[in-house]
């Protein structure tokens, strides 16, 4: 179905109606705030009717639902809407009916499109090469270029493909006065190897009463699929074809041409234009080359801009995973080689939200709201990781995996990972101080490990992603899990700690050894350390507190548990990091096991 807006001076706009698609119409409609903003986010489209001063900037919302158009005047609509001669603010109408705002009539018409498979063959079909059309001169170049100059804005300003197709078809009709109808067509590949089917994305006719459109499948296939050149077909008039012949395949249209749209983003697309010969046309022939040249220019600009949009979309997707510096390498001429998987020394960071499962249970009636908050948390992680030139390897629900050391080596990879981890911790801590912040009641656990791994483009030939693979990845994941047992935000393994010390501990970064652990299911013990932020606030561990804890740890590892227990009591009571050792000592009644070697065996992940 279509909604046609007709003005007093023969202005006309058409809009396709999709089921349940809300359209906000007005002189210059805008996306609203508050409750109406939520509707907009669910897919409300905008339709501008610029010629009528009686139409408010935002005047009405229309929705096609259950074979009727539901119309509702918005609070901003100053002037009344008339339906069947009566002022109405909320009503429904069917096909063939209309309503009026100011001097503009809005009519619902049926949109009948068919692509016949048994069409009448044309009298002739002529193909035109791009080189031939480029040598053609316009008789009305200024008018053509004026129309063409609006094409980039039409493409950039389209909210979606529906709006793009509508505006583009109207632009074609404006730029080709001889045309009576225009359309965007697209070939749909079949799964069984048959010839593609033709999908009419959008079409318009100068005559608002013409509600049917029957394009030539043969012409479209010849131009877009077989020859990939602009093609023009001419059909017999009824009087020339004989009394038993169909008038034409296009109802009362005599000719049509189709121009393929170049580029990967528009593969299989075509611009289709059809019209009638005027009485002044000699022998039913006219010089169509200027119109074809204009159409090819439109197709070239459309294809180029859509390809650019696709490239920008891919870069935006890459931006989700790569830092700006890494994106430059990936986009370079050697980018394909840079993405190749290879062994390298990396530092892995796992960051996981705390409390997500409980929040999901509590927010089961507002999962979209929870998703928004989790997305915000992942954005914070991404910003902190990218600021240190890290690579996002994966998002796993409410967790992020990042790594350093690929695609280029980084001597300070471990220090950069640690800086990103501390930045994430401080961002979450700051959010906790702001009531109402989306992250206020979230915490995160971060684990880091360093070692050799395979990093790069991993997966199959048909589906891959940038990722990292190796035992060190599993170790970093275990480090993140152990933060729950030790009740500290950030843990790193001894290799990461050694690499940071090797390049010099950056200013504002502090550490303390927490314990020597053997993670559940692993053979090798790991000395785990905690990364600490700079001293700030009354509940910050001071350097002397760190020294007291590490002295207690040395006594604990040496089997002097009474001494370790006494030293731990000198560490502030609000420090959760010491609770793990205190609890372990008390569980064993302050006596180390006979085979004590300073290694704590973890009994669960």
Please, could you describe this protein's structure?
With 605 residues, the chain is of the alpha+beta class. The protein folds into 4 domains: 2-110, Sandwich (Tumour Suppressor Smad4), CATH 2.60.200; 113-310, GAF domain (Beta-Lactamase), CATH 3.30.450; 323-480 and 487-503, Nucleotide cyclase, GGDEF domain (Alpha-Beta Plaits), CATH 3.30.70.1230; 510-528 and 535-605, no CATH class. The longest helix is centred in the middle third of the chain and has 33 residues, at 289-321. Mean pLDDT is 83; it is low at 32-42, 238-250 and 279-284.
Secondary-structure topology with pairs:
Blueprint: E1 2-6, E2 12-16, E3 22-26, H1 34-41, E4 45-48, E5 60-65, E6 68-73, E7 81-83, E8 86-87, E9 90-93, E10 98-101, E11 104-109, E12 112-113, E13 124-128, H2 130-134, H3 141-148, H4 151-157, H5 161-175, E14 179-188, E15 197-205, E16 212-213, H6 217-226, E17 230-234, H7 238-241, E18 255-260, E19 269-275, H8 289-321, H9 324-330, H10 335-339, E20 342-354, H11 356-362, H12 367-387, E21 391-396, E22 399-404, H13 413-432, E23 443-459, E24 464-469, H14 471-486, E25 490-492, H15 494-503, E26 510-518, E27 526-532, H16 543-557, H17 561-568, H18 579-587, E28 600-601
Parallel strand pairs: 3-4, 12-16, 23-25, 26-28
Antiparallel strand pairs: 1-2, 1-11, 3-5, 5-6, 6-9, 7-8, 7-10, 10-11, 13-17, 14-15, 14-19, 17-18, 18-19, 20-22, 20-23, 21-22, 23-24, 25-27, 26-27
